[in-house]
Design a protein that fits this description.
- By secondary structure, the protein is mainly beta.
- Among the domains are: 2-99, Immunoglobulin-like, CATH 2.60.40; 639-806, Porin, CATH 2.40.160.50.
- It is built from ten helices and 44 strands.
- The strands form seven sheets. It has an 18-stranded antiparallel β-sheet that branches. Strands 15-16-17-18-19-20-21-8-11-12-22-33-34 form a 13-stranded mixed β-sheet, with helices on both faces.
- The longest helix has 19 residues, at 2-20.
- The protein is elongated.
- Mean pLDDT is 87; it is low at 1-21.
Length: 806
């Protein structure tokens, strides 16, 4: 019996060795036979299979295929394909393919007066595209993607962001400062089911794996599509159904690949102010399939000219009569206001297609990108056995240089800046910086602030902060502690606690002015627009995803609120004037139970650590509902109340890159609500304005416990000026936004008895409308708003909406 087990074990080991040894690499170069120049991005295919790859810019390729006899076909437009047969039983290297240029006689282009020969070719290509799309119901593929970032200064990656410092203006100083590589599998099924699984990741040490989700299937633009999106702008594809109404086409010349004629056609938008593509597309004769694009985005498609070059290169291979993307090359160069330069090279190869092999609908869910556990932990042995694009010597040196720098010990002074609000001691521990260590208001006077912050401890599961401050006028020391722990495989359950003894801003949830801006107004102009009160207490909350679209939360709060008083009249100027008195609040202790839910239909990405929703670029609807319950008997409150609060917000794409954003808010209270817990309609101080606020109302001008608000904002971008082709304006990239706001507001008799002031109510809906104008390069917009009813002395308001004050 022991001998049998031993025999079986040996067989298993031999089988595993045999299985692991079944695939080998073929590596080599592809060159022009006469000039020996490399043929960049030439195609390499294995005859009779869906295996293949493309060469890199230097004409180098590598291909992973099973052992045995194979026929390799190397092709390039304008050349005769080269075919070689191999019997693969080991890795093959240094194979050189030398392609001969086609020598066949090509028909001359005959131009008939009044007829553009390219138009007929494009019409047939559009028909062929529609036939092709009808044939395509399901497919899956494998992909390898490499992104190389060149810049003139160092890069640092956050969890979902990339930070770059200021650098040199000299383009020759650009060097590789970041690399990402990943291997993925993509799946598609009609009508729009899509999912991609990342099986392996690696990146330079300055970039986190959570940024390495730019996969071949997710980011490539399939030029067989009707609409193609780049940097937030939708543009017709070169063979979209309406492409002939949008682009001008010109037949440049006829080429050949083997004995097949290929048409090279130039295209550009009919109107230069319309965003779109310029460059060449290649369509094969007889079948009129699109087989290659080499395009650039025009100036109108590049936001404010920040991107001076956006080049897209894509080829398609024939898989049993269906042309599918074989590769995707993207080159972007950005000159950011002349302060720094950034270039991105993105290269993807797609291979091993399975076309129209039915994929079960159960396979698709809310996850569109999933990073497998351990994908970021693949070692060098794994990558040496994976089909990739050959790396360059410069890339290898960049990996070594960046990784060695990141491994050096960092000191406190490496990240120190007088203009920062935080200073880092390590990746997980920061403290307040000089800009965040002082504020002023008429209650505390001059106040010193200091905070300790712990982020992403225990594999990005634990976060906490302790904020402390002392006011020299009220002579009080205040603290505010927050802690949270994230649970679950994708950290979708959150337990949080908050304990505090602090000064609160009255109705602070209705405005978002920066504290630095508020302090500056007080010190320089003796104008303080906020009121304050003291609050001591604690709260805890538990929230969790119970369904891909549903998140529930429950919690408890206990706080005692007390009046705060004006203690300082200090200001650098207007020394003889006095600040207004601070508004009193309802002095009481509140104990309340909170329950709520969030509904979010957006799909999400599982990046190996977190489950995060895709961005807010497309249409979406979000819903939030909360109930706060405070009872005299159960919770021993002096007053009891129940508030119901609901918010529905979303965005609907309208015309081109224009969109309509909406927000509906409702609050209803039953019982006697303390003054400081009423809802204040979001207003503004003079000469300012902010999105989803009432521009013609002042701060805290309207408060209540029965509220309904509606905010509609239509972002036109620069489309109106382009569509109307208004001279000069159509090319300035001015951003136009129109909006209308409505509100109903009232206060119950019980809550009104606790109010220290009277308030305006809108028992018939209040209406205002306006527009804003700005530019993408400037951090502010100018707003013009008119009241439509409830007129008084402030029926029109001009305001500046700027990130500098919020």
């Amino acid at each position: 019996m022991k001998n049998i087990f031993l025999f079986i074990a040996v067989l298993i080991i031999l089988f595993q060795v045999s299985t692991n040894a079944q695939y080998y690499f073929v590596r080599g170069d592809i060159k022009d036979a006469e000039t020996t120049e490399p043929l960049s991005f030439a195609n390499v295919r294995v005859a009779g299979t869906t295996l293949g790859t493309s060469a890199n810019k230097s004409g180098e390729f590598e291909l992973k295929i099973p052992e045995g006899k194979h026929t390799l076909i190397v092709s390039y437009i304008g050349y005769i394909s080269d075919t070689v047969q191999i019997n693969l039983d080991k890795n093959l290297s240094a194979i050189v393919f030398k392609l001969q240029q086609t020598k066949i006689t090509l028909p001359e282009i005959t131009v008939v007066p009044g007829e553009n020969p390219a138009i007929g070719i494009i019409r047939k290509a559009i028909e062929r595209k529609n036939e092709r799309n009808k044939l395509l119901t399901d497919y899956n593929f494998k992909a390898y993607t490499k992104g190389v970032v060149w810049s003139d200064s160092d890069l640092e990656g956050g969890r979902q962001s990339l930070n770059i410092g200021l650098g040199s203006k000299d383009s020759v100083e650009l060097k590789i400062n970041g690399i990402i590589e990943n291997e993925s599998e993509g799946y598609f099924s009609e009508p729009d089911n899509y999912k991609e699984i990342i099986t392996a990741q690696k990146q330079t040490a300055n970039l986190p794996s959570s940024l390495n989700i730019f996969t071949g299937g997710r980011i490539i633009q399939n030029f067989y599509s009707e609409e193609i999106s780049f940097i937030g702008k939708e543009m017709p594809g070169p063979i979209a159904d309406d492409a002939l109404e949008y682009y001008y086409y010109y037949l440049v010349k006829t080429l050949a690949i083997d004995d097949r004629i290929v048409y090279q056609i130039y295209l550009a938008p009919d109107y230069s102010s319309n965003p779109g593509f310029t460059g060449d597309i290649f369509i094969v004769d007889s079948t009129f399939d699109l087989i290659k694009v080499d395009l650039q985005l025009n100036r109108a498609a590049s936001t404010a000219g920040i991107f001076d070059t956006i080049n897209v290169y894509q080829q398609f291979n024939d898989y049993n009569g269906v042309f599918m993307p074989a590769d995707y090359r993207l080159y972007v160069h950005a000159n950011i206001l002349g302060l720094t330069q950034l270039a991105l090279e993105l290269n993807t190869i797609l291979y091993d297609y399975n076309i129209n092999k039915i994929i079960s609908d159960d396979f698709f869910d809310e996850v569109i990108i999933k990073v497998l556990p351990g994908a970021a932990e693949k070692d060098s042995l794994y990558w040496s056995q994976t089909q990739t694009l050959p790396g360059t010597k410069e890339e290898s040196l960049a990996y070594a240089r960046i990784d060695s720098i990141e491994n050096l010990p960092h000191s406190f002074w490496d990240d120190f800046s007088f203009l920062s609000t935080r200073m880092s001691f390590s990746d997980n521990f920061t403290v307040s910086a000089p800009l965040g260590m002082y504020h002023f208001n008429r209650v505390e006077g001059h106040a010193i602030d200091f905070g300790l912050f712990v982020n992403d401890l225990l594999k990005q599961r634990f976060n906490s902060s302790l904020k402390m401050n002392y006011g020299f006028a009220d002579k009080r020391f205040k603290t505010d502690f927050n802690g949270s722990c994230l649970l679950g495989d994708y950290r979708t359950t959150k337990a949080s606690v908050n304990a505090y003894n602090k000064l609160n801003t009255l109705f602070g949830e209705s405005e978002s002015y920066h504290e630095f801006f508020s302090s500056l107004l007080s010190l320089l102009n003796k104008y303080e627009f906020r009121d304050h009160y003291y609050s001591t207490g604690f709260s805890f909350n538990l929230s969790a995803d119970v369904d891909p679209i549903l998140r529930l939360n429950a919690g408890f709060e206990n706080h005692t609120d007390r009046n705060a008083y004006k203690n300082s009249d200090f200001s650098f100027f207007k020394k003889n004037e006095k600040y207004k008195d601070n508004l009193p609040v309802t002095e009481t202790t509140v104990r309340a139970i909170n329950i709520g839910l969030d509904i979010d239909f957006r799909k999400f990405i599982e990046d190996g650590f977190f489950r995060r929703r895709i961005g807010l670029s497309g249409s979406y609807i979000l819903l939030n509902a909360n109930v706060k319950f405070a009872d005299k008997n159960l919770l021993k409150n002096k007053i009891d109340f129940t508030t119901y609060e609901t918010t529905v917000r979303g965005k609907l794409n309208s015309f081109g890159s224009s969109s309509l954003e909406f927000k509906i808010f409702g609050l209803f209270n039953s019982g006697q609500l303390p003054f400081q817990m009423l809802y204040s309609l979001p207003g503004n101080i003079d000469l300012t304005g902010q999105r989803n606020s009432f521009r013609t109302l002042g701060l805290n001008e309207v408060v209540g416990d029965k509220i309904i608000t509606l905010n509609l904002d239509h972002d036109w971008g620069d489309n109106i000026f382009r569509w109307l082709r208004i001279p000069i304006l159509k090319d300035l990239e001015l951003q136009l936004n129109t909006y209308i706001n409505a509100a109903y507001s009232d206060v119950s008799a019980k809550s009104k008895r606790l109010m220290p002031i009277s308030t305006t109510t809108f028992k018939s809906p209040f209406l205002e409308a306006g527009f804003s104008i700005g530019h993408v390069l400037f951090p502010m917009t100018f707003e013009f708003t008119w009241k439509l009813n409830h007129f008084n002395g402030n029926n029109f308001r001009f305001g500046i909406n700027s990130q500098l004050i919020y």
